[in-house]
């Protein structure tokens, strides 16, 4: 049994709350969490990602994706099948699920599509202008002549 107390980390640091929260979330994650449905995360370009979730057997109406408090939450609930069917083998799992993905700051969901049994969710990192590095122009000093004396006219 592993149990770590991160309380001293919270008391001794300032501004690292997200790192401490991430470590706390990873360390307290339930070991019995399910791997259903399987998913891929791929990097498309600088600052762009795609999450692909295998959702065979679900229609677009039965899927839901929302962003709440820096978390992407994907849920699916299969509608009750009115027809009583008798399966000889049932290998396609269509059980309800909820999958959460923690998003970093300034990561925004740009779109989602449901194609060929795969739910694709596109993300991009958009850093605000105020946080982007900017170059500051340094003005050159004008050399002054040491022998020059300036005087104002009195009359």
UniProtKB/TrEMBL annotation:
InterPro entries in alphabetical order: A-crystallin/Hsp20_dom (IPR002068), ACD_IbpA/B (IPR037913), HSP20-like_chaperone (IPR008978)
Record-annotated SHSP domain positions: 30-141
Keywords from the UniProt entry: Stress response
Organism: Rubellimicrobium roseum
A matching Pfam family: HSP20
Protein known as: Hsp20 family protein
Similarity-based family: Belongs to the small heat shock protein (HSP20) family.
